Amino acid sequence: MADPVIETQELHKSFKGNEALSGLNLNVPAGSIFGFLGRNGAGKTTTIKLLMGFLKPDGGNARVFGLAATDAAASVEIRRRVGFVSEEKDLYPYMTVEQIIRFTQSFFPKWRDDLDRRYLKLFDLPESRKISDLSKGMRSKLMLLLAISHGAELLILDEPAEGLDPVAVEDALRELVALAAAEGTTIFFSSHHLEEVEQIADHVCIIDHGAAIVTGSLDDLKAQYQRLRIVLGEDLRAPIHWVDGADQVRQEGRTVDILASRNVDAIVNQARSLPGASVERFPVTLKEIFLEHARRN
Amino acid sequence: MILFRLNPSSGVPIYLQLMEQIKHAVETGALRAGDQLPTIRKLSEDLVLNPNTVVRAYRELQHEGIIELRHGSGAFISESVAGHTRVTRKARTIVQSALERLMSLSLTEDEARRLFENELAQLRTETNSEGGKNG
Lengths: 297, 135
Known about the structure:
Number of strands of chain B: 3
CATH superfamily of the largest domain in chain B: Winged helix-like DNA-binding domain superfamily/Winged helix DNA-binding domain
Distance between the termini of chain A: 31 Å
CATH architecture of the largest domain in chain A: 3-Layer(aba) Sandwich
Helix content of chain B: 55-70%
CATH topology of the largest domain in chain A: Rossmann fold
CATH class of the largest domain in chain B: Mainly Alpha
Number of strands of chain A: 14
Number of helices of chain A: 10
Number of helices of chain B: 5
Strand order of the largest sheet of chain A: 6-7-8-3-9-10
Oligomer: heterodimer
């Protein structure tokens, strides 16, 4: 895999004694669409603010393009090279759509006029309307337009699809995918919507209480996790001590239901060694993985 | 273009779903030897899929000899699938006769399907444990 575009090690951040990040490790490969998943308050926005240099960590490292996000000069360089959508979708309220586009464009030499025209049309944004008069959904679209038209090699998007209706979400996802396919842009986006992440991400990190609890390629995670249904030959009263990796075990009579996070083959072999047992394997969805870990914490 | 129906929320990796559907299209004759598949960019935009997912599906299909990737001109169903289609046709008659015999034991459709799937699962677990870990 190529060099990471974003990398954090043991990132810590507290606000007034409340720990927002408790040792976050992230590794975002170049060219990936990376879904940063977590419940509200899990630490997603704090992480993004640290990456953009809007906040300083209490401990640990954060690097974007190999540059230290904690260094003031490097941070300017990072912001110049990143297309960014903030959680607040805060824009100058007195400017019109047209004005904010021209204003933002003036900062970025690689600005893509073709893209800003295209998205104005696609997202149906009224050029002469003031930002203060835009709906939340329109503001989200406008921020996405500004981030994409940058011509940036990396997009960092904090809840980019927030406030969009399902049709607009699909449009936005399609544009992100098209951008990745055409330009090889790396896209790092946070979301608490599993469907958005599952649809376009090839890598995910699930963050909870400020630390990564699951991270990796989505295909690998789906291969690694499996649900097993075992029907035992006879009613075994004594509890079975399953091999490591059998995270969640439910037994009812002769039927055992296991959610395995690893060592699936070893667990299957163990089940087979029980007299008369039959085993079925089922795929596990990201939702099940997410819920399993969220409950455990 | 044939319509692919993918379910991103299923536990099955999307590249595998895509591979299955292309194979199915070849088996049913919807795609024939020499037919061109959409470019990676087109397919990823049409289906709103990660382009890396399409790349992976195409690469694995190439590895299995089902498609050929020609540099600069895209992906094509390989000529060798014509032979494979003959094999599939032969296999179909085997499955048909096995099914007829099962039905003569008055098995229901569901029972027959479960038996078949169990045996497949069994086989897969055996090959998995023999082959050790991949990747």
